[in-house]
Write a structure and sequence with these properties.
With 309 residues, the protein is mainly α. The chain has 13 helices and five strands.
């Protein structure tokens, strides 16, 4: 196919996203694809598929990398690569231009703390104002002790608690980004039962007493809730406790890190968090797991050195 007849890369990518991603991936994921579409059109809006060589694809990545961190460039590449490889299969691109690429990027910004230590978490929980009525402080306690995603925690109703078995069933999420209402969970493995300690079980039993079984515990009036508001409350509590400021997602990370530090296996943490696989958990917490593994090595050496021949 001649260059004048070949589709534009930007048009092809737009069509590919609408065909293979729209209505399939979650809204948050789709928004990332939409952002990638805008960047492709801005940086390579006049590039036709027939002219998409490895050098031209590399230039596109380099231009994107001029204003983005390396990990973001890698995500952008993965989003675009699927459509390009399909174009190769269709004969619109003569050779795979995605091979042997160099992923660049600007220096990452200083990372904010993602999670608290067990000691810091205890200090945070000590400043919670846990009255008789549901509040954002109760939500902080609930996420800290269950590790649920914010969307999952907001969707929990009194009917989801199995107080006899000391667990909460995660069946759905709350679409706080889209205006409210129940929505499916992130993936099939996110449907799960999460065990609660006896203290949290007793607290939840008292909190939900007399409430409508099918009304979300933390959104009782169905009003629209914003993550920014919830995170602002958590930030206030962190400052009050004198610990690093984290988000609600960071509180979920804190839950996992405390479990790892207590010796809980990766497989058990993965199931509790509702990850699709243990590999996902290992990828998210790779640095923490490596630190703990070094502690295991030290313990192994102490154990072996105590054995005399």
């Amino acid at each position: 196919m001649g260059g004048d007849e070949s589709p534009l890369l930007a048009d092809w990518f737009d069509s590919w996203v609408d065909t293979y991603k729209l209505g399939v991936v979650r809204d948050a994921t789709l928004s990332k694809y939409r952002a990638a579409q805008r960047w492709v059109r801005e940086l390579a809006g006049d590039v036709r598929l027939s002219a998409l060589t490895r050098a031209r694809y590399q230039k596109l990545l380099n231009d994107y990398a001029a204003t983005h961190e390396r990990v973001t460039v890698m995500d952008f590449h993965h989003q675009l690569k699927g459509s390009v490889l399909d174009a190769v299969d269709e004969g619109l691109v003569s050779r795979d231009p995605c091979r042997r690429l160099v992923i660049k990027g600007i220096e990452p910004k200083e990372k904010k703390p993602k999670y608290l230590s067990r000691f810091e978490l205890q200090r945070l929980l000590s400043v919670l104002d846990l009255g008789d009525d549901v509040s954002w402080d109760w939500l902080v306690l609930f996420v800290a002790k269950t590790g649920l995603r914010l969307s999952e925690a907001l969707a929990v109703t009194p009917a989801d608690f199995d107080l006899m078995r000391q667990c909460v069933r995660v069946r759905r999420s709350w679409d706080y980004k889209g205006g409210g209402g129940f929505a499916p969970v992130k993936c099939p493995s996110s449907v799960r039962s999460v065990e609660m300690d006896w203290q949290l079980t007793a607290q939840m039993a008292a909190l939900v007493r007399g409430m409508d079984e099918d009304v979300p515990l933390f959104v009782p009036d169905g009003r629209r809730v914003y993550a920014s508001t919830i995170n602002a409350n958590l930030a206030r509590l962190c400052r009050k406790a004198g610990v690093s400021v984290i988000t609600m997602h960071g509180l979920r990370h804190t839950h996992a890190s405390v479990l790892f530090a207590s010796g809980v296996s990766v497989a058990s943490v993965s199931r509790r968090l509702g990850h699709s696989s243990v590999a996902v958990t290992e990828k998210v917490y790779v640095h923490l797991i490596r630190e703990l593994e070094q502690g295991d090595v030290d313990a192994i050496m102490r154990c072996m050195s105590a054995l005399a021949a």
